Every structure is written in C-alpha cells, then in structure tokens.
Amino acid sequence: MATSDNVVRAGLTPKNRDVYTLCSMLTYKQGFPTILSGVPSNPYTMKYIPPFDEFEVDRCILPQETSIIFPPSPGPSIFMVISGDGKMFTESSEVLIAEGTVLFTPANAEVNISTISGLHLYRAGVNSRFFDEPVISSSVQQHEK
After folding, report:
1. Residue 88: CB partners within 8 Å, gap ≥ 6?
2. Domains along the chain?
3. pLDDT 10s per residue in the chain (145 long)?
4. Neighbouring C-beta atoms of residue 92, cutoff 10 Å
5. Which parts pass through the membrane (predicted)?
C-alpha cells in the first residue's frame, strides 16, 4: 500500500471511525487477478513492473559460479535470498548471503552478487517509472574456472 495521510478507519481502533465513507470507497469487482509475465533484463533476471508506480520486483536465478551487477537505482532496494548462497558486494561492504538473507541497499548503490552454488533471489525497489528515466538492465558475468 502506498504511503498516505488519508486514512479511513472502520473498526479495531479507538480512533475516529467512518464506516460509511469506507464502504462508499470500496469496489466490488469480481474476477481473476492479472498475472504479470515479466520482462527479461538479462538471461538470469526477470523484471516485473506492476501497473502502478510504487514498486517493481526483479526475480534473479543465477547458476553456480555466476555473478551479476544490479546497476545503481535512484531509489532504495531490498534483496531477499530464497535459496542458494553467495556474496553481495557494494562500494562499502561485502556480505555472505544465503537462504533467508534480507538486505537493504540505499539509493544509487551498485550491487554485485556472485554465487557459490547457485542463487535464487528477489530485489524489490521503487518503480523506475517513478523517476521518469529508464534503469539500465543488469549485466551478467561468468566466472572462469
């Protein structure tokens, strides 16, 4: 939910409740949800951009001994590791990552991720449409054995 100063409460609070206004704002539209297909950013990353400007999500599945660079984004990001292990590098830090790791990166931070045994992760960040400029696609590097 996007941030807002406009809150209408209907219950479970001692604060002012306005049930009539809340009910008048609701829409009752039945149907199936729209499933986003995603757009490939590179061979390992799919970008999902919903039809609103609050956020976008990248799904990245890296094979063993591969690295990827997420270019600087004008907004902050959150990375969530679903499975696998590897390392995440930024200008100021180097962190071992594994299943369950959740990391915050500030705006304008380039993020380099390398895998050890493969990696499945997601990046959530501010929708690039919000900044009125396209964000450059992630680049991929294969480690030499």
Report:
1. 79, 94, 95, 97, 103, 111, 112, 113
2. 33-130 (2.60.120.10)
3. 455 667 777 777 788 888 888 888 888 778 888 888 999 999 999 999 988 778 999 999 999 999 999 999 889 999 999 999 999 999 989 999 999 999 999 999 999 999 988 999 999 999 888 876 544 555 555 554 4
4. 7
5. none
Tokens of 7: 């809150």
**What global pTM score does this model have?**
0.73
Joined together, the tokens standing for residue 59 give: 């799904």
Kindly tell me the burial class for residue 34, based on how many C-beta atoms sit within 10 Å of its own C-beta (0-12, 13-18, 19 or more): exposed
What SS3 class is residue 22? helix
Distance of CA 119 to the CA centre of its chain: 16
Task: Answer yes or no: 9 catalytic.
Answer: yes
